[in-house]
Specification:
Layout: E1 8-12, H1 26-38, E2 43-46, H2 57-64, E3 72-78, H3 84-97, E4 103-107, H4 112-118, H5 126-145, E5 152-155, E6 160-162, E7 172-173, E8 178-179, E9 194-198, H6 202-211, E10 214-217, H7 222-238, E11 247-255, E12 273-276, E13 279-283, H8 286-299, E14 304-309, H9 312-329, H10 342-346, H11 354-361
Parallel strand pairs: 1-2, 1-14, 2-3, 3-4, 4-9, 9-10, 10-11, 11-13, 11-14
Antiparallel strand pairs: 5-6, 7-8, 12-13
Helix pairs in contact: 1-2, 1-9, 3-5, 5-6, 6-7, 8-9
Length: 362
């Protein structure tokens, strides 16, 4: 019998690219985030790229943070053409603003059109870009750890703000970056914000296995997803990681605009998903979606789902009010957030500071 793990659920709130200014009001994103929070979802994501029209995802979720209290906030962050020092500072700031609910969905930029926006270098092959993204993830972790948790002393009597002995130079030298550090932002509340990587593309899988806390995969059947999950866990173990610290979520685009579909003669259950260029796509009602999630979860194929609504407001409302409520009624999904941070939602421990550990070893 497969081990039944806690079900994890996350949702994208961005929707298809739009060009009208009314679409990008802050109230819209706050409304969607609060809806996801009411459903006790682990986190929301917000798409972003250099070639996509729209607002900056990090900035938007920094605005959403004070208007929410529990749901995790995970913007897409493109590591190509950007400096890891700035990336780590921005993500750490989101973690402070949200009081420990931040993550970042690591992405790369492979097109010449996007490279031309910066004019510093040409586009590179995907394999090289993901190796670079891995370096950004490693540098960010070091920068987040470069302040010990109690580095801030704030002694008004002496005028000392920090204990300099508890700040560390990261002295990173890689194939793509040389970063000295330390960070300019104190260590985030979570120690390290949650790193999310979509491992659908083959080149990103190794980076995900080495650096990600949450991995998104796309598979049409539970057996396929289970095989990908085991492969990622094996790779993580080869990098010296505990595979049980890896959360693997199946990506699924959902269109809840229609109703439930009847079972066709000769089929045990109605066909609910199709697989195209963008991965698995579900069209149907929220009850059938709950059945699909239940079936996959009971097989132990994945740790949960990352759901991308076709129409964010409509589909997210139906997801929370019906699908999630049904899963909660069946005892498969929690009815409240168990803690205050995204790591607590996901059952992930707060990482120890690598520099403190090194000093202890010495």
């Amino acid at each position: 019998m497969p081990v039944i793990r806690p079900l994890r659920l996350a949702a994208e709130i961005g929707g298809p690219p739009r060009h009208d200014a009314a679409h990008y009001g802050a109230a819209r994103y706050v409304e969607l985030a609060r809806l996801a929070e009411r459903g006790a979802l682990d986190f929301i994501t917000l798409q972003d790229s250099f070639g996509r029209p729209g607002l900056d995802a990090l900035a938007v979720l920094s605005r959403v943070a004070p208007a929410t209290g529990r749901v995790g906030l995970v913007p897409t962050v493109t590591t190509t053409h950007t400096e890891p020092f700035h990336v780590s500072s921005a993500v750490a700031t989101l973690d402070w603003v949200s009081r420990g609910r931040a993550g970042w969905l690591v992405d790369v930029s492979a097109s010449e059109a996007e490279a031309a926006l910066f004019g510093r270098r040409s586009a590179a092959p995907a394999a090289a870009l993901w190796r670079e993204a891995g370096e950004v993830a490693e540098v960010s972790a070091r920068l987040w750890d470069s302040w010990e948790d109690d580095a801030e002393i704030r002694e008004t009597s002496t005028g000392r703000f920090i204990d300099r002995d508890k700040l560390h130079y990261v002295d990173f030298e890689g194939a793509f970056f040389t970063v000295r550090g330390p960070a300019i932002v104190p260590r985030p509340p979570q120690g390290r914000p949650v790193t999310v990587i979509d491992a659908t593309e083959g080149h990103s899988a190794e980076t995900a296995a080495r650096h990600a806390d949450v991995v998104l995969v796309r598979a049409g059947r539970p057996e396929e997803a289970a095989a990908v999950r085991e492969s990622l866990r094996s790779r993580a173990a080869r990098h010296g990681r505990d595979p049980d610290t890896l959360r693997v979520l199946a990506g699924l685009t959902i269109d809840l605009g229609g109703g439930e579909r009847p079972v066709e003669p000769g089929l045990e259950s109605p066909p609910r998903t199709t697989t195209g260029a963008g991965g698995p796509h579900y069209r149907g009602g929220p009850v059938d979606l709950a059945e699909l999630i239940t079936d996959w979860h009971r097989t132990g194929a994945v740790d949960g789902f990352h759901l991308t609504p076709t129409e964010p407001r409509r589909d997210l409302e139906r997801l929370v009010n019906c699908t999630v409520s049904l899963l909660q009624h069946r005892g498969l999904f929690r009815t409240f957030h168990p803690g205050g941070t995204l790591r607590e939602h996901l059952g992930l421990a707060r990482p120890a500071n690598q520099y403190t550990l090194a000093e202890g070893t010495s």
